[in-house]
TrEMBL record:
Sequence intervals crossing the membrane: none
Top-level lineage group: Bacteria
Domain Metallo-beta-lactamase: 19-242
InterPro entries: Metallo-B-lactamas (IPR001279), NDM-1-like (IPR050855), RibonucZ/Hydroxyglut_hydro (IPR036866)
Pfam families named among the record's database cross-references: Lactamase_B
Start and end residues of each stretch annotated as Disordered: 137-169, 241-264
The protein's name in its UniProt record: MBL fold metallo-hydrolase
Bias type Basic and acidic residues, positions: 252-264
Species this protein is from: Streptomyces cathayae
Segments of skewed composition (Pro residues): 138-148
């Protein structure tokens, strides 16, 4: 099964799976994988690694934006088959482990079934393994580098890049889930936004920067507040969890998403 791999910046590839994206950050033979798509996307996931000249055994780590099944699908497969570490924000680790599940329910979907696109999306999600139980047995919090020498112990240290291919910087953007994280890629001016900010979704008639419909968010007010966090990042390339890459000021993209959310 051929993957839809888009080279969007040096060493950075946005891959479109079946309604969900993942990102490959590449340095030589090693890669960092951000998210893994639906369980049913596994062949596409492996094909995308091959297309960029890599392989599952060369994945240095899997970074999880959040633990919804359409992003977590093959994380445990990579961990158990290849020993790949799986990292997430500390607040998301128990969600990744499936100590609990904060995800849109069947009841919420049925109540919104009259909206255009919702039922076709739900059918696709079922066929792609969206209700599968896919816990990661041993997820870990991000392996933050040691604080810089001379930094004050009582002062908050600014976010630091992880020592992984692509040097991603996790940015906590709660709301969609409690531990949702985006990843800033300062070297390429890109932000991997997961579901904190998307550019399209089968359940939305809008195209371009937007929040997902309210039924998908754990806490809508926090999701709106996280748009301000994203707006503060220096970026002109948005790599969302759903929809195509969006080029332009991230600040403007976040502002547009907020305006659209307030019109609902």
């Amino acid at each position: 099964m051929r993957a839809d791999v888009r080279h969007v910046a040096d060493g950075t590839h946005l891959v479109h799976g079946s309604n969900t994206n993942w990102v490959i950050l590449q340095e030589g033979d090693a890669v960092t994988l951000i998210d893994t798509g639906y369980p049913g996307d596994r062949e596409r996931l492996l094909a995308s690694l091959a297309e960029v000249g890599s392989a599952p055994e060369a994945v240095a780590a899997v970074l999880i934006t959040h633990a919804h099944t359409d992003h977590l699908g093959s994380a445990e497969y990579l961990r158990s088959a290849y020993g790949t570490p799986v990292y997430a924000h500390e607040a998301e680790v128990p969600h990744v482990r499936r100590d609990f599940l904060h995800q849109v329910t069947v009841g919420q979907i049925l109540r919104s079934g009259w909206r255009p696109g919702v039922l076709p999306w739900a059918l696709h999600a079922l066929r792609s393994g969206g209700t599968a139980h896919v816990p990661v047995a041993a997820p870990e919090p991000f392996p933050w580098p040691e604080p810089r020498p001379g930094s004050r112990s009582d002062a908050p240290d600014p976010p630091r890049p992880l020592d992984l291919p692509g040097r991603p910087v996790p940015v906590h953007t709660p709301g969609h889930t409690d531990g949702h994280c985006a990843f800033h890629l300062p070297d390429s001016g890109a932000v991997v936004s997961g579901d904190a900010l998307v550019s399209a979704h089968p359940t939305s008639r809008a195209s371009g920067p937007q929040l997902l419909p309210d039924m998908f968010h754990r806490e809508r007010a926090a999701a709106l507040a996280s748009l301000d966090i994203l707006a503060g990042l220096e970026s002109d390339l948005l790599l969302p969890g759903h929809g195509p890459a969006h080029t332009g000021s991230l600040r403007d993209a976040a502002r547009l998403a907020r305006e659209r959310a307030q019109e609902r």
